[in-house]
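Weekly modeling sync, notes
Attendees: AB, CL, MP (scribe)

Item 1: holo prediction request
CL wants a bound-state model with magnesium ion before deciding which constructs to order. AB pointed out that an apo prediction alone won't tell us much about the pocket. Agreed to run with the ligand included and paste results into these notes for async review.

Input as submitted:
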Amino acid sequence: MAFCVIGYSLIQLVGEYLFTQRTRDDQRIADDLAKDCGGYLVAFDAQGLYDAVTQGALEGQTRVLVLDRLCTVQMDSESRLNGRRFITAEIENVLEGADSDYGFYDTGGGSRWFRAALSGFSGASAMTGLYASAITNASGSLSGVLVYISGVQEIYESLRDIQLKILAWLLIVATAVMLVNALVLRTITRPIGELNTGIARMSQGDLSARVVVRGNNEFASLAKAFNSMSERLEQLDKSRSQFVSNASHELKTPLSTMKILIETLMYQDPMDPGMTKEFLTDVNKEIDRLNRIVSDLLTLVNIDSGMKMNLADLDVGALLMEQVKRLAPLARENGIELDCAVKEPLEVNGDTLKLQQVLYNIIDNAIKYTPRGGEVHCTLNRAGRKAVIRVADSGVGIPEEDLPHIFDRFYRVDKARSRETGGTGLGLSIVKQFVLLHGGTIDAKSTLGKGTTFTIELPLSGKKQEE
Ligand SMILES: Nc1ncnc2c1ncn2[C@@H]1O[C@H](COP(=O)(O)OP(=O)(O)O)[C@@H](O)[C@H]1O
Ligand SMILES: [Mg+2]
């Protein structure tokens, strides 16, 4: 559209320019001729007039007529209209007082006499310009009209030429624009379409949906983001179903054991009281186990649904010593040396119950996974704006390939041993979540057969940080 408007205005402009230029030139020639002829007309110098007129009509390219005030042709450069009347609107205008006037005629159309009058001058349907200029005598009064006729067909033709050229360019550019447009649209719509399909597949539950990453533009990074998002969702979905199946399995084990124990009690008739008591003690143990699993699961569910924190500034050193004291009997029972070294009192903004559980679980693990005669050392130090708690044991250690997984839910290196010591495999995942809730980090280093060190870093409370 813009191109059409530009093309049209361009043709208009060029045409106007060409016509103005031409009209001005032709009118000047007509005016000059009128001046020359004026003298001859006054002097009745027919020969002079004839010479001027034939000279003015450039080599038959143009035609010159000299009319008197009654519009009778006094002199025709082609000597065909002499003595006849010749009148047009422009001539009338000049007779009525205008200095000059001009108009354009299609010699192919118009009245027959006009066509006949100008025949032989230029081809049929050729455009012609007619210039009328007043011939005045010395006193300034009108003595005749000079008519200068000149073909303007070539202007029309060059204009048509320009028109065709512009049209051709318009077509070429429009095609190019359309092609580029189609290409650009393809590069835009195709990735969007693919992304759309991917999203639709995902919303229908197919989390394996991925899109092809092409090129290196914004669409490519969008595709990459989509892929990594769906990958994460897929992982999350997998780990969730894994968790559910693990949880069911963990709950089933004590239930099956209990069922066997109770069935034996029911069908073994009669049973001696000592045996019955032993069976019931075992059932009770399984119930305790179920209880532990369920309460650990509840804790995890609570963490997942955004746990409330009862924050307060508390002394981590005191907290650590308290848990060491709580576990001292267990350590003694297992023949393990347990000690605790707190260098300076450090304050952390935290939830007492949760931090207690964190420390208890870590020290409890250290004792449980250390053979008789081993050692467990707990220390508290300050590193910059952090309180660093270390629990180092001389126990069985953790194989390198298991180390990255020990914080996963239900992950146990040695299932039999963990179950024997009453573990649920959820302890460390709860610990990790609690530490993260406090803005801290937890890390484990271990050498198989030599021991394990857990390091917990917690940010010091605001008061301490300012010092
Ligand atoms: N101090 C440690 N020494 C050796 N292994 C450990 C230690 N702490 C944890 N682990 C390993 O990490 C696993 C996960 O620990 P945790 O989540 O507390 O479960 P569990 O209920 O078995 O104690 C344990 O089963 C054990 O294999
Ligand atoms: Mg544990």
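Recorded for review: Residues 214 and 220 are 6 Å apart (CA to CA).
Action items: CL to compare against the apo run; MP to circulate these notes.
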